[in-house]
């Protein structure tokens, strides 16, 4: 019968489904289990050697006696003072002989050993003896530190020092300890040090003496192996081999291997192991299932992941934060934003409070899909739950505001972030620089660039590209060139993204001739224009109504072997529509569908917008139905187009239907949509509905037009509500005159 260590495992953390303790034995010394070796014949086990230390001379014996007596009799005095008279005669040989006389007094042993280490380097044998005494005295942490410090301070060759340490530990075991835990501790220190070959050798050596390392220590080994760069295969071999040698793997062991397989994208193998667990005598837990769910989510197999979540429910297992977060991330990747928010609600209904990771994932997702209102709601909810947004959360939200051109809000968040002592990184600064450049605020952009450098952060190619793009859009091409020369001087290389950004900047500034010349310069520099370069130029030609030139560029692009993207087709579609060539636009849509090219909401929106402008709501409805039939989900822009079109055509039933659907999906009305919807409802004499929408618009800080203010001023006056009438008159003067520019921009 062999005593085996079985430490208590700590509660798992959400950030990673597996958390194997490195020294769980420190907190629970009494949880040993007896295990009969099934794979070894105990009669063939090698006995531990008898201990026979070097004998002291008579003179040495007298000195050791005096030292031991002095230590015991004057135990409450500082040891350096007690042993001062013996320092000149003290040798490293004396350490073991003194230890023999005081071994039953743990405190004296370690005080003496510390004193001896400061004066003479103790022998490896003496160190091993003290390790045994520590374990026998129920101080495993000290033993752990003594073994660990040996490698940290010795500077010896690992292989040779390992061999010597093991030999001495085994040699001193029978006389000084007889506690198998000492070998568990040694095994765990080797694992923590990453000495994986030595770990395997030590395991085999212990088998020769009839000892099997506990499953919990072996789990630590599996965990460290599976987390190393090339250790997954070795972990799988150990997992396969060790049961034959007496290790009985438990649920935690299987979880480690499942997690490792999933990280290596071998999800099917991980799922098979999950299914086999019960036949191996282990019951899968939440971590087992969550690891495989996460694995399927990582490879984009949402349906498989959801099936496993359903299976968890059947088994009475509740998904944890890790499970939900995996699904939320994948839903966002697939553009299923509302479903992701639904998963969050389900998560909270089960009493699981989302952490920073979950909230940040959702906020980032909503920002990327342009739904800032939902992102801000989550940001507020996160804080109301007592969770502090971190730098990643702030950066995600700042990114969202910058993409939407809301630089005032982005700047406010940035200063809030600094006020809380959070450090922005290169991504945060580059996002703000890019946002300011797109807004034409070049002074602010360069101020941020200088702050970034002062804080020791290095601007990258993306940072300089954003600055150059902003300068080009303002027509400062020469300054942009100087900036790019500075960038090259710092060892950064211009790439295709930089050139594309410059081409885009020149096009936005209306300087298409220079943009075409820059595209030619790209070839000279050894960088070939790509689909984005061509699409950018085509967009400029389309917006200026030069559809023939845009078509020529498309043909040139195809001749060079570049594949158009959905953005390329959307550029062409928008060009046809704004040029009044609606039949050509419909033909392009039909051709895309025939060729298996899936249009997106933007493709359909261009056609719907133009038909709405032409007040042809029958054709608009036809396009909308075709969009839904193809499984393309309408976006915020789609709903705004439909609501404006139906409102202006006085189809208020349809307009209100689309408004309800839009709100249910978390989208918001634009200013122009609010104005159109309010006017349409008001004309139908549904005054309370119109008033409710008007108040909602005011709460959102949006600017209604003059006609709407006149409508509600008259309505309130007729109702005898003079205070509201005067309030709206003041507001109309402020908003419609002072805020006219803002209203037009919106």
TrEMBL record:
Keywords in UniProt for this one?
Answer: Repeat
Q: Extract the Gene3D superfamilies matched here.
A: Tetratricopeptide repeat domain
* Pfam family of the protein (one): PPR_1
Q: So which domain of life are we looking at?
A: Eukaryota
Please report the residue spans annotated as repeat (PPR). 250-284, 285-319, 320-354, 355-389, 390-424, 425-459, 460-494, 495-529, 530-564, 565-599, 600-634, 635-669, 670-704
What PANTHER family does its record include? MITOCHONDRIAL GROUP I INTRON SPLICING FACTOR CCM1, PENTATRICOPEPTIDE REPEAT-CONTAINING PROTEIN
Q: Which NCBIfam families match?
A: PPR (TIGR00756)
- What name is this protein filed under? Pentatricopeptide repeat-containing protein
The species is: Tetracentron sinense (Spur-leaf)
